[in-house]
Amino acid sequence: MVNKTLFALDFDGVICDSAVETAITAWKAAQEIWTDMENQPIADTQIQAFRELRPRLEFGYEAILIMRLLQQETDTTELARHYHLHLDTLINDDDLSIDALKDAFGQTRDRQIQKNETTWIGSNPLFTGIAEKLKTLEQNDWFIITTKQERFVKRILQGNDIHLDAARVYGLDRKLDKQTVLKQLKASHPERPITFVEDRLPTLFGVLENPDLQKIKVQLADWGYNTAAERKVAQDRKIEVIGKEQFLRR
Known about the structure:
This protein is α/β, with parallel strands linked by helices. 51% of the residues lie in helices and 9% in strands.
């Protein structure tokens, strides 16, 4: 008997298309930090610019910095090319704390939920077909591994009538990187093959380069927050690039 595959799924960019909500939440959080943004509404062009930059983002708090840099009219091509340099410079110049940025981002989301949870969930749509697919999976066949705070993941899933045990959601709260989570899953499910579906290419590179994770199958979700150039690099590196229809059929 062949053991069933255990799926480890990223959330934003694989399950949920949260780019617009992330941009708006980050802008609101930035308005609390920089007073010159206080009465300035976010523009559609800034949301679109954030979507273009979204493949560079790893942690939610970075969105606050991106929106500040866009408000300061930083060129998007320049920002994408020297992403970490721009973020680090802003953090240092404005004496910011990463922990404080994380708290600000989460607290801003909490206020949006308190104001109107239905609207907030609606601003975090699942990619077409994903909700139906997840409802067909057995509880013991999948986990979520994300850098998003777990309470937000749970609300979005519940709002889409998807019920996953809280212990199967590994989020920012646990302070574990994705490689560590995969090691834990591998150790606790030694008999099952594991497939990790992620939309961020550098994350997959990290898994491939980890000698303890060589048996983990990795797949790049082409419907998520990555670029055509990244998908080409993935294929050149023999990383399987999958389309959404392929994922839905499995």
